[in-house]
TrEMBL record:
Keyword RNA-binding assigned: no
Alphabetical keyword list: Heme, Iron, Metal-binding, Monooxygenase, Oxidoreductase
Record bears the keyword Heme: yes
Species annotation: Sphaerisporangium aureirubrum
Family of the protein in this entry: Belongs to the cytochrome P450 family.
Protein name as catalogued: Cytochrome P450
Lineage: superkingdom: Bacteria
Matches recorded under InterPro entries: Cyt_P450 (IPR001128), Cyt_P450_B (IPR002397), Cyt_P450_CS (IPR017972), Cyt_P450_sf (IPR036396)
Length: 422
């Protein structure tokens, strides 16, 4: 199906900075929209529809795709042609390449997920909560003088610090690990200059040495941290993660976890602070907070969309998607589908059916860090409610958004002020 006057590309930042109006049109007029304006770099050359991307916006279709990994693959080629040979040659000096959770399908995915998931269980998250609270309180103590820009002074350092504390990265090494991890992400951004990627790969080999030392250290003297859980994780018949799997999966956990938690906490704070009565309601009744976080993520979840590859020819909402085509699964369009969430633009932390939101995905690839992330976002907000209960955004505040990477969307700033005594 096509709509002649609709022109949308999920790769166009001008359209995706404010995606909701066009997603509403797509969902209503053309729920599986073939965009010929994909990104050449992201395309797999031999697909019948190379250069096209099928944008799926209805909640029902998004849920179907996420629940059928056999029909919509997360396999390695979904991001395009992959890492260039010169870069692979540099990486070969370090640990062997390994697949990760994000780019595998069952059954390989199931095995890895069982092992990695052990470190992110409810119990591990609960054990980590006091450490996350301590990080939040340390940062909140710096919010003095009656005004602050919460994104840079509180949200970003909190999400990074709390996640790396949870993993077990010592504080004095956290900046280095974040810098290395940024270089690792460069490997997966198609179209970057190959020489820049090759230089990044040389640093990533250094980074892998860091993992080898950290894992050996945890095996010799286990600690209460995620790296220890990954080092010791064991499934049936003694199956364990290899050193390369631990390194690649941890790089992915940092990459997926830190940015999403920064953007998720910032966007939920925006939802709460943009209407003082929402903030006052959670201030008065903390039991509303869990629902407020879910509703905030439904309205402004940071992950806009992610790719899948059609494993065979398939029809969805009346449109044929050919084998090998790239499919953009738009979580945030699904979260504003009026058929799934009546009056989708309104805020209701006690909304019936709120648990159906897909801000953390669904099915086999459901966010492995969702439990930790929820705890971190709730803790971050609770500490602000305790420290600056009267925080307000400017009355005429008009939020702007930026895209840290093409699939993530985050408010640009959160300038708050509050009355001070004396
Ligand atoms: C508000 C915060 C977060 C949001 C909105 C979010 C969103 C998502 C989404 C939508 C997916 C599904 C991907 C798919 O369908 O292919 C996902 C998967 C994933 N997330 Fe998160 N995430 C968040 C926090 C985290 C954290 C804190 C971690 C790590 C500790 C993490 C690690 C991952 C990983 C490794 C996957 C891949 C899981 C798999 O394929 O089995 N995420 N996340």
């Amino acid at each position: 199906m096509t709509a002649a006057d609709l022109h949308f590309s999920p790769f166009d930042p001008e359209q995706t900075k404010d995606p909701y109006p066009i997603w509403d049109r797509l969902r209503g007029e053309c729920p599986v929209y073939k965009s010929s304006m994909g990104s050449d770099e992201w395309m797999v050359d031999d697909a019948e529809d190379a250069g096209a991307v099928y944008v799926v916006t209805k909640h029902e279709d998004v849920a179907y795709i996420l629940e059928h990994p056999d029909k919509f693959s997360s396999g390695e080629d979904k991001n395009g042609p992959g890492i260039p040979p010169e870069v692979l040659e540099e990486l070969a000096k370090g640990l062997p390449l390994s697949t990760t959770l994000y780019n595998t399908d069952p059954p390989e995915h199931t095995r890895m997920r069982t092992l990695v998931g052990q470190g992110l269980s409810q119990q591990r998250v609960a054990e980590n909560a006091p450490l996350t609270r301590a990080a939040a309180e340390e940062l909140a103590a710096g919010l003095t003088g009656g005004s602050a820009e919460l994104l840079e002074q509180y949200v970003r350092p909190l999400a990074n610090r709390a996640l790396l504390d949870f993993l077990g990265v010592p504080r004095d090494e956290q900046d280095q690990v974040l810098q290395w991890n940024g270089l690792w992400e460069m490997l997966f951004i198609p179209g970057l200059p190959v020489e820049d990627q090759r230089q990044a790969a040389a640093q990533i080999v250094e980074y892998q040495r860091w993992y080898e030392r950290a894992v050996e250290d945890r095996r010799a003297s286990p600690r209460q941290d995620m790296l220890t859980r990954l080092a010791l994780a064991e499934a049936d018949a003694g199956d364990k993660l290899s050193m390369a799997e631990i390194a690649w999966c941890t790089m992915e956990l940092i990459s997926a976890g830190a940015a999403n938690t920064v953007d998720g906490l910032a966007n939920v704070l925006l939802v709460l602070l943009s209407e003082p009565k929402r903030w006052e309601a959670v201030l008065a009744d903390r039991d509303l907070l869990a629902g407020a976080v879910e509703e905030g993520l439904r309205l402004e979840g940071p992950t806009q969309w992610l790719p899948r590859t059609a494993a065979g020819d398939i029809e969805l909402s009346g449109t044929r998607i050919p084998k090998g085509a790239m499919v953009a699964v738009t979580y945030q369009a699904a979260n504003r589908d009026p058929e799934a969430f009546p009056s989708p633009e309104s805020y209701d932390p006690q909304r019936p059916g709120l648990a159906r939101h897909v801000a953390f995905g669904r099915g086999a690839h459901y966010c492995v860090g969702a439990g930790w992330s929820r705890m971190a976002i709730r803790t971050g907000i609770e500490v602000l409610l305790d420290t600056i209960p009267d925080a307000r955004l400017p009355e005429d505040f008009e939020p702007e958004f930026y895209l840290p990477i093409p699939v993530l969307r985050c408010v640009t700033s959160l300038p708050v002020s509050w009355p001070t005594t004396g």
